[in-house]
Amino acid sequence: MSTAGRTRGVAVREALTAYGLLAPALLGVLAFLVVPIIMLVVLSFAQWDVLSPVEFVGLRNWEWALQSGTMWHSFGVTALFVALVVPVQIAAGLLLAVLLVRNLPGSAVLRTVLVLPWVSAPVVLGIVWRWLLEYGGVADTLAGTHLGLLSDERLALPTVAFVQAWTQIGYVSLFFMSGLTNIPNEIVEAARIDGATEGRIFWRIKLPLLTPTTFFVLVTGVIAAFQTFDLVYTLSPAGGPSGSTDLIAARIYQQAVPLSNIGQASVLALILFALLVVVTLVQNAYFSRRANYDR
């Protein structure tokens, strides 16, 4: 066999080995991502309550979604929820990361405590926080009056947004800690020698070098906030007072399970999916021109 033939044979074997190793992951993506999306698209044109046969109804579900005031209300509430959650968790996570990288006394214990809410079951956290914040709960007892944190339509959404941000702060701080520790000391020391203050070093050197980390936690934070369901549904069920906590993920659940309208739920899920894709692409376009990956 010629040298070219042997080289081609080695390349084919390496390719087959690579695809063989990738096969389990590719099958997982196909089974749990591609197929469900295809099913959602098909069911969005159908009327189905799980028990009866699928009945295709054309664009009726899409017309309902576009004309539904409930859907637009849920998306509006979700957008406000995301706007409340994401900036708080990023700012608090960055602040904690700056403090923790200094290895102050108790930093190791604090890191563990910060991660616990993120790894805990959201349903359990929702139950505990509801016990603390509901009418006559611990918060009302300590304050000596009814605060209405979950029963007042003006306070319910900020309250559940605070709880959601609290669960994510430890997750965000870990990534910012990793980014801060990877910044070369030579750059920081050179700035100090030039007379830069610690504040100037942070804003002019460290923060710009954290742009890739900021992009990652922002994208994942926005996606997670838009998809929030179990924590808020447990903490403030039935959409809260006057629908003030009626997030889109909870609306999808309401359409799919209690109302048994899989077609309309599929439409809402596809709209949410498309919205997240657009938001992610916009964020990527913004940060791609500003990200600095040189460390």
UniProtKB/TrEMBL annotation:
Residue spans crossing the bilayer: 21-46, 75-101, 113-132, 155-177, 209-229, 267-287
Organism per entry: Gulosibacter faecalis
Database matches in InterPro entries: ABC_transporter_permease, MetI-like, MetI-like_sf
Keyword flag Membrane: yes
Matching Pfam families: BPD_transp_1
The family this protein is said to belong to: Belongs to the binding-protein-dependent transport system permease family.
Topology within the bilayer: Multi-pass membrane protein
PANTHER family cross-referenced by the UniProt entry: ABC TRANSPORTER PERMEASE PROTEIN, INNER MEMBRANE ABC TRANSPORTER PERMEASE PROTEIN YCJO
SUPFAM superfamilies linked to this entry: MetI-like
Keywords from the UniProt entry: Cell membrane, Membrane, Transmembrane, Transmembrane helix, Transport
Subcellular location: Cell membrane
ABC transmembrane type-1 domain mapped to chain residues: 75-283
UniProt keyword annotation of Transport present: yes
Descriptive protein name: Carbohydrate ABC transporter permease
Gene3D superfamilies (UniProt xref): MetI-like
